[in-house]
Amino acid sequence: MTEPFALVVRFTLAPGAAQAFDELVARTVESIRSHEPGTVIYAVHDVDGKPEQRIFYELYRDRAAFDAHEEQPHTRHFLSERNRYLVSTEVDFLSVRTGKGVPLASPA
Q1: Architecture of domain 5-48+56-94
Q2: pLDDT at 60 > cutoff 90
């Protein structure tokens, strides 16, 4: 059985960087949609009352799918460019315990 792999990332944007960061994200997400079948969810959220923050929720079929995501040219481009727009980044890796609509395990 393989286990899903998930993470949450909170980005705090530099003043005036929101539009450029959001454009970089939009280009990246388009490539994720078309080239990453192992990426189950890649959701980018605004935070109410905090226009300088973005939260990403990412769910991958398994750790191998996440590793494949990290090696994609569009992901590598995003990782190399994002810091120019950021004040801080916080990452939490998650273990799926239970939920609705979440593949908790798949046959090996």
Answers
A1: 2-Layer Sandwich (3.30)
A2: yes
